[in-house]
Structure prediction request, 290 residues.
Amino acid sequence: MKIYIDGKYYGEKDAKISVFDHGLLYGDGVFEGIRAYNGRVFRLAEHIDRLFYSAKAILLDIPLSHGDMMRAVVDTCRRNKLRDGYIRLIVTRGIGSLGLNPYRCKKPSVIVIADKIQLYPVEMYKRGLDIITVPTTRNLHSALNPAIKSLNYLNNILAKIEAINGGCEEAVMLNSEGFVAECTGDNLFITKGGQLMTPPLSAGALYGITRGVVMDLARDNGLTVTEPNLTRYDLFNADECFLTGTGAEIIPVVKIDGRVIGKGKPGPNTLRLVEQYKALTKVSGEPIYP
Ligand code: PMP
Prediction:
């Protein structure tokens, strides 16, 4: 595997960053998880846009242009002969001193890793997930806005630990007001009647790229798409529930906190969206081998 670091490619063993990089010392940096399907990078421009928005929010100057960043991702895929896989794009604050001051870090580092991913076993996509609400709430906007996809994922990791310790693969995270925000690495959706609902960004959800694609597909299917504040009660009484994310794609949820959702199996709207999403990923995206 060839890993891109600041314009050069390194083998897996030689791909290293400094122990003084503030990405490591403080989780000071931003990242993206991107997917390649059938020789194309899916929704690449949107991922790069979000990376730049995250960087702007933390006053991090990405040393590449939008276009150069897209090229770095596509080139890394090509070098690794990737057709289907997962790309991790990271921008760290760079090398600084043993103190918080980010202005001591003179040059941010850009890293691109093109690899594979399988978030959940295939069986879970067929059966649907059993998830639980966990005690750790989503970060406050006023502290660390959940819209920033930063290298500081401890909030999500704590919730993930609580889910796994509770015997589940994923966690529903509430915000400090008790409304549903999202899961640890995925956005959450429910359907009720002809409506598709997902928490608004103001509830503490990430502006998920898959979330956006699914909302567009659902509108095309004639569903009304809304972003209301949702409570656990709304989840328990939904017809269908599913999660979305670049890594997870669309995964059905059939149980939440011991309550069976709908008929206890992946519902028709979910299954239709899964098929449509799959079809879309096969034909759309930035070509790796033009
Ligand atoms: N929420 C969180 C916290 C995430 O980390 C992610 C990405 N894994 C998502 C939602 C889904 O976003 P996307 O569809 O852009 O991958």
In short: The radius of gyration is 19 Å. Residues 33, 156, 182, 185-187, 206, 208-211, 244-247 surround 4'-deoxy-4'-aminopyridoxal-5'-phosphate (CB under 6 Å). The helical segments are 22-26, 44-57, 66-79, 122-127, 154-165, 209-220, 232-236, 268-283. The domain at 2-115 is CATH 3.30.470.10 (D-amino Acid Aminotransferase; Chain A, domain 1).
